[in-house]
Q: What sequence folds into this?
């Protein structure tokens, strides 16, 4: 086993065992470490698929993105008032579970003149910040997206990963549905880490379409469950 395989399997052992931290998914089915000895991650992860191996299985729940452009405007930069930023708001679809489709809203900030990012060494490089509901989305724009764009010039997306179902009902308060699906199917990969990773992956697809590039190269991150799922997305998708 290569070092990369070892790390990937260790990550997924944690991915499939998130309940001890979040209460949403079951703990990894690995033996407890023997008294006095360190936990053997290599042994515990031997029969656990890597995230890259798991992706073809969980991606079967993906649906057509149906990217919808909501608005496109110029706004002042808070970090550097001498600059103007282009602000794009869009919606896209990612998953369909139990007959309901997940819809995410994203807000992208980029330089008003994006010519700086058309050079070969910068083209397609982006940042995606996972966020919860509309209450925290403005804060993510002000605290992260705006200063990153002002200081680096790279396009930044604030992603409302758990926005709403296609019937308008909010997703975040209903994440226990993943526990229900897991218990019904016996498939331990139905948990916040894996499904929210798919939303990040679909967000990269949306970014590619909005920027009209063949492939993005993304820095992805978030807080709490959106931080853990970001590492899973990175392990699943080479972008």
A:
């Amino acid at each position: 086993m290569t070092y990369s395989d070892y790390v990937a399997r260790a990550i997924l052992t944690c991915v499939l065992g998130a309940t001890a931290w979040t209460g949403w998914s079951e703990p990894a089915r690995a033996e407890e470490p023997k008294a006095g000895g360190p936990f053997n991650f290599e042994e515990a992860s031997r029969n656990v698929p890597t995230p890259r191996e798991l992706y073809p299985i969980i991606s079967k729940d993906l649906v057509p993105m149906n990217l919808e452009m909501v608005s496109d405007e110029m706004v002042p930069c808070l970090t550097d008032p001498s600059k103007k930023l282009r602000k794009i708001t869009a919606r896209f679809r990612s998953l369909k579970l139990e007959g309901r489709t997940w819809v995410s809203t994203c807000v992208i900030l980029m330089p008003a003149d994006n010519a700086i990012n058309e050079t070969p060494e910068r083209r397609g490089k982006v940042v995606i910040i996972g966020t919860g509901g509309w209450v925290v989305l403005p804060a993510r724009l002000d605290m992260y997206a705006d200063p990153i764009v002002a200081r680096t010039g790279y396009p930044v997306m604030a992603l409302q990963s758990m926005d709403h179902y296609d019937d308008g009902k909010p997703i975040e308060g209903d994440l226990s549905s993943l526990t229900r699906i897991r218990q019904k199917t016996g498939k331990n990969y139905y948990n916040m880490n894996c499904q929210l990773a798919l939303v990040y992956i679909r967000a990269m697809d949306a970014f590619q379409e909005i920027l009209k590039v063949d492939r993005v190269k993304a820095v992805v991150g978030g807080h709490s469950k959106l931080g853990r799922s970001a590492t899973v997305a990175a392990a699943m998708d080479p972008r």
About this structure: The helical segments are 3-15, 19-22, 41-44, 51-58, 137-152, 176-185, 192-211, 225-236. The first helix runs from residue 3 to 15. Residues 1-30 have pLDDT under 50 and may be disordered.
